[in-house]
Write a structure and sequence with these properties.
Blueprint: H1 9-13, H2 15-20, H3 35-38, H4 41-50
Length: 51
């Protein structure tokens, strides 16, 4: 599975994905809560909701 994560393509091609994932750090890719994810409130929120 390939995801184009560049703006504005991610919001156009993957509307559902874009609404559930951070635009800066794709939470789905970061299954481990590393320091990069922790710095992003939106990513942390999505990770907390799904894990």
């Amino acid at each position: 599975e390939v995801v184009i994560a560049e703006r504005p393509y991610v919001t156009v091609l993957y509307d559902e994905f874009a609404s559930n994932h951070c635009q800066f750090l794709l939470c789905q890719v970061h299954t481990r809560m590393n320091s990069l994810v922790k710095e992003c409130k939106r990513c942390r929120q999505v990770c907390d909701d799904t894990h």
